[in-house]
Amino acid sequence: MKNLAGKVFKLIRNSKQVSLRQVAGNCISAGQLSRFERNESHLTVDAFLNSLQRMNVSLEEFQYLYNIYHQINDVRLSQELSEAYVSKNIVKLNKMLACSQKLMDEASDPLELQTYTLNCIVIKAIMTYCNSDTAVTEHEITYLMEYLFSVEEWGRYELWIFTNAAGVLSIETLDVFSSEMLKRTQLYYSNSNNRRKIHQMLLNVINLSISRERNDIAIRYITHLDKLNISDTDMYEKLLLKYNKAYYSYSNGNKEALNIMKQCAKFIDFIDCENLYLRLKDEIMTLES
C-alpha cells in the first residue's frame, strides 16, 4: 500500500512550520525522518510517537487526517455510505456494493478477503433498509456472527459492523450480541468515539426491542444506560434515551408519554437533525394511527 503515513506526517509538520531537524530532536536523524516522508523507509513505533509528541500532535489527530486520505478506498470510513442510506440512493449503494465485491474477488490473502466480505454484507444490510431487492442471506448473517464472536475485544470496525447490520438480525440475536458488545468493548470504552457508538447502538437496540414488543429486553438496556450516567456533553444520546424511555412507557399503556416523545422530536427538529426528526415523526404518527 502507498505510504500515506509519511505523506500525512509531512502535511502536519509543514502546517506546524517546524523543520525536520526540530522534529527529529535527539531521537532520530533528520535524514531518517525525511526518508520516511518520501516513502523510502519506515520509523519504529517509538520514533514515530516521539516525533508526533514533539509536534504536539496526538495519535488520534494523526489518525483522523490519515483516514481522510485513506477513506476513498475504505467503505468503513466513507461518508458516502451513510449519505446513500439517508437519501435512499439505491444506485449509489449498488455501485458501492459492486466495488466492494470486486475488492473481495481480488483479495490477496484471507484477512483481506474476510474484511471485504464483511463490508459487502454490511452494504447489503443497509440496502435492505432502503426497500431494495437485495437481501442478506442466512449464510452471510452466520458469517458475520461468527466473525463478531471470534473477536475478543471489539474496536471501531466491529462496532461499525454491528451497528449497521443490526436491522437484519432477529431480536433474540440482537440481544445476545448487545450483551456481547458490552463484554467485548471494555478495553476501548474510554475512547470517546467508541463510547458514543456503544451508547448509540444500545439506543437503537432499545428502540427496535420496543417496536418488536420485547419490552423485557428494552428495559434491561435502559437500566444499563441509566447506570452509565451519560455525560451532559453527549446531549444527542441523552435526548434519545429520554425519547426511548417515553416510548417504553407509552408501550406499557401510559398514553401521556406520547407528549414527551413529541417534545423530544420537536427539539431534534429545532437543532436541524432533519433525518432523525423525520424518522421519529414517522414513528410517532404510526403510534397515533
TrEMBL record:
CDD domains: HTH_XRE
SUPFAM superfamilies: lambda repressor-like DNA-binding domains (SSF47413)
Molecular function via GO: DNA binding
Top-level taxon of the source organism: Bacteria
Domain HTH-type transcriptional regulator Rgg C-terminal: 112-279
InterPro entries assigned: Cro/C1-type_HTH, HTH-type_regulator_Rgg, Lambda_DNA-bd_dom_sf, Transcription_activator_Rgg_C
Protein name: Transcriptional activator, Rgg/GadR/MutR family, C-terminal domain-containing protein
